[in-house]
């Protein structure tokens, strides 16, 4: 009897009514020529497929998307923004669409963008309404484009409409739903700037965001995500930011924030409903986030929120760019909503010291508004901490969905206690090269667009700046360069190739690997780690190499010091596969990357074209030299011009 019951339960609907919303139409928003981009249609497909094959969607009420009505969107966005998003996909915008997108921060647009934006917003409204009415206990809207960066009059950060903010205003405005207080939990790795601004003065909405901040150096790279941003007027105290000082935060860090900030405040606030801006880019394996929350971690975070608002919770997808990580994280969350497994276990790892510092600062800042935050945290608790440069448990390099991640995440809900962060066997060779090389500094000497610091930072933090047609995935280690200095070297700068993926038409900068006394080149030197240098090499050569071992290791370093330059076999098709040693600066080796001597022969013979840089690209070089304080604008312009016109 009992066996029969268990069996039937596992195939039938849950006792909990859980909604799940997926609609293929949201996949029609993609890059204009389907160029690779982290925010791509496969994200929601991967999640949906995973939930189907795990038998989750079968236990849920499956809903399909509805377009949001303008009147609801206008509660968050301005009329001009709504007009733009409504019309951007129409034919009459065909010629202007790309230009409009390139003037926005981290946005692409195509013929499917308008519809997807309306569906994403409408879907979150739809599930929120059903949960509010009690037709569903909870729900997950698998939507894209994401929303939390979108502001009143601005699309940014892959977001067009602020889906969660729109649904929140909808709930508050439909008075008969009886939803008067809403808690928004934004656990996407980026700060939810758009949502924060929407409810800045509104005490009906408690906005809580935990995000990588790095003192304003992590996207969106300003002070809006600081813990001092607590809201204003009647909304003062109803905006809580928990800004990580560093990457690599994991379950222990997030759970500490839940236990010592969010959960006590949620108790005191007593929301009628909870909306989660559920980005999964803080997940272990994410190429942009650099954090390490496991599916088990997400399950715990969600489980702890189910005790409020009578379990009325809506999750709306935001970011999350590793298909395996986001699928497993979403699955773990769905299992919590369905409430068919108990999530137990404790984490063996400790929070970073910086995590306790941030928790303390947040509590201090907000204790006047939330009495539950007033007590000092016991020293005994705070002294249980991990040092910041800990061994990494994750590997994934940039755009490749590393296989080891797949393996690492297979267990889906696996308590950290079985993960054994330090000696786990799965921690393959690829991890240890990273931690080894992350302790060694080199000067990376740049002569091209990387002389302009914001452009170089794309290789470290990920991102895309003016003029770039391709997004960078960044380094695994997103710490900025420790020092920057400029030097002149006796090498020749020149421009070759017809076009590049990053800059479009026009040649790109190369350095003649051999030095001649009468040549001079201005170089900007960044002090970074050898691990970061490897990630730069990988990105400069647009390689599909999996990075399970380094492109350039300590042996290569010895070798290049002795021989002056070495060619990297693994990226021999890349244009910058030749690492050149330029001497030492304060006991630290100076390295650059360029073409090799056989390429020089091909440039000279005309087999491969020499080609002047495009105006955009040349301007970037000039900006680098001018902002770096090396040359005046006229000097920089003529320096670039000479390099572009003088024969090799
Ligand atoms: C929704 C989200 C990230 C934007 C990063 C831009 N956006 N470099 O995760
Ligand atoms: Zn994000």
UniProtKB/TrEMBL annotation:
Residues 37-336 form the Histone deacetylase domain. The keyword Repressor applies. The keyword Repressor applies. Its cofactor is Zn(2+). Gene3D superfamilies: Gamma-glutamyl cyclotransferase-like (3.10.490.10), Histone deacetylase domain (3.40.800.20). Keywords: Chromatin regulator, Repressor. SUPFAM superfamilies: Arginase/deacetylase. InterPro entries: HDACs (IPR000286), His_deacetylse_dom (IPR023801), His_deacetylse_dom_sf (IPR037138), Ureohydrolase_dom_sf (IPR023696). This is Histone deacetylase 5 isoform X3.
